[in-house]
């Protein structure tokens, strides 16, 4: 009986990447940052084929844009919470649930 051959292993190919809105809906800010860090490490190794590098770069850009959008929304919420009118009373505005 012959032993089955192991699969041929090539350079890591990036996983399929969901749209930015899908990424945001399913992962946390912290998870996105960790994933972005992993992408940077893989790209910095320089051992991936060009197409795989481009796909990872695109995925990284989507994650970075999502992270920035989340930070922008958080900053806006903080500004809303810390806002005061001319008389020193807190400004109470309903916050967008995003």
Protein described:
The protein is an all-alpha fold and 98 residues long. The radius of gyration is 21 Å and the shape is rod-shaped. It has helices spanning 20-26, 29-45, 50-82.
Q: For the report, how would you describe the main beta sheet?
A: none
**What's the CATH topology name of one domain?**
Helix Hairpins
Rounded average pLDDT: 78
The strand count comes to 0
Low-confidence stretches: 4-18
The CATH class name of one domain reads Mainly Alpha
Q: Which CATH architecture of one domain is right? A: Orthogonal Bundle
Q: Structural class of the secondary elements?
A: mainly alpha
Gross morphology: rod-shaped
The radius of gyration over CA amounts to 21 Å
H/E topology pattern: HHH
Number of helices: 3
Name the helicity range: 55-70%
* Amount of beta strand: under 5%
Separation, N- and C-terminal Cα atoms: 60 Å
Briefly, what is this?
The chain is an all-alpha fold. The chain contains 3 helices and no strands.
Features:
Helix Hairpins, 98 residues, mainly alpha, 58% helix
Strand and helix layout:
Layout (H helix, E strand, L loop, with lengths): L19 H7 L2 H17 L4 H33 L16
